[in-house]
Inverse folding.
């Protein structure tokens, strides 16, 4: 699933290419991506026709395009969603779901989604912040992110630190890949309880989260297959710089010990057993 750096790359591309554009027409080619619009696909299309995109914003893994009406077009990429800006007349992608024709422009905005876990929605009054995602915490690159609040919530929790990092109401935008990478940089095992970390350790981890995300942004995000691309259809290449995630059996870049993989929340965790020792069991 695309994580914060990948979604931010898409947001920046939308900001460059569609902000200021007016929607001339909307074609919903499959109803599932607009399933959260209760009145249905036809109403979704008519509600957006004639509206102008005024900005491109993001919170965590959610994107939204504010409209001049005060409403917003909200998007979540899910597992395989893509927001592409294509020339008018370019061949349709196999999994094209929604097409936005832009007035007076030779390009169009397309929502492509192979697995259809992502989706689009109209958020009434959501231009500043869609109420549907107001419960999600700011992400660590957001100027509204509260470091003291984050530290306090981590240190109050007895859950493993990786589980805490994936809790979007505590910190948004951190997914499996970047959690593993930041924990490796911090020399912390993902099962280390939050309440057994010092304030200094939590702040150091937060610094590594920001660093790994900024490194990924500089390289266009992480792409393991063709499903994640930016608005121009280009893949990122941060996967070549990963130190832990996906490197099971390969030598740790720090100490040479083979990277280990364990099951975690229906996913996988990757870590160095020497650099990131498992926490000792608390005494009864």
């Amino acid at each position: 699933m695309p994580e914060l750096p990948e979604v931010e790359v898409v947001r920046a591309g939308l900001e460059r290419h569609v902000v200021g554009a007016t929607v001339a027409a909307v074609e919903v080619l499959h109803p599932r991506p607009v399933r959260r619009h209760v009145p249905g696909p036809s109403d979704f299309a008519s509600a957006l026709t004639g509206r102008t995109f005024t900005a491109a914003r993001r919170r965590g893994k959610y994107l939204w395009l504010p409209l001049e009406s005060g409403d917003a077009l909200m998007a979540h990429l899910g597992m395989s969603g893509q927001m592409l800006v294509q020339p008018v007349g370019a061949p349709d992608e196999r999994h094209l779901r929604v097409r936005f024709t832009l007035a007076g422009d030779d390009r169009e905005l397309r929502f492509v989604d192979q697995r259809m876990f992502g989706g689009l929605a109209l958020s009434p009054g959501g231009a500043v912040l869609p109420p549907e995602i107001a419960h999600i915490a700011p992400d660590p690159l957001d100027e509204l992110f509260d470091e003291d609040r984050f530290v306090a919530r981590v240190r109050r929790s007895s859950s493993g630190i990786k589980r805490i990092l994936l809790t979007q109401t505590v910190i948004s935008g951190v997914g499996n890949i970047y959690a593993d990478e930041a924990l490796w940089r911090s020399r912390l095992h993902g099962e280390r309880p939050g309440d057994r970390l010092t304030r200094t350790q939590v702040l150091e981890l937060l610094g590594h989260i920001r660093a790994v995300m900024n490194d990924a942004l500089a390289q266009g995000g992480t792409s393991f297959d063709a499903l994640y691309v930016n608005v121009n259809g280009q893949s990122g290449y941060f996967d070549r710089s990963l130190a832990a995630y996906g490197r099971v059996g390969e030598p740790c870049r720090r100490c040479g010990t083979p990277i280990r993989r364990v099951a975690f929340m229906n996913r996988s965790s990757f870590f160095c057993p020497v650099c990131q020792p498992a926490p000792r069991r608390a005494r009864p």
User: Anything to note?
Assistant: The CA atoms of residues 25 and 39 lie 18 Å apart.
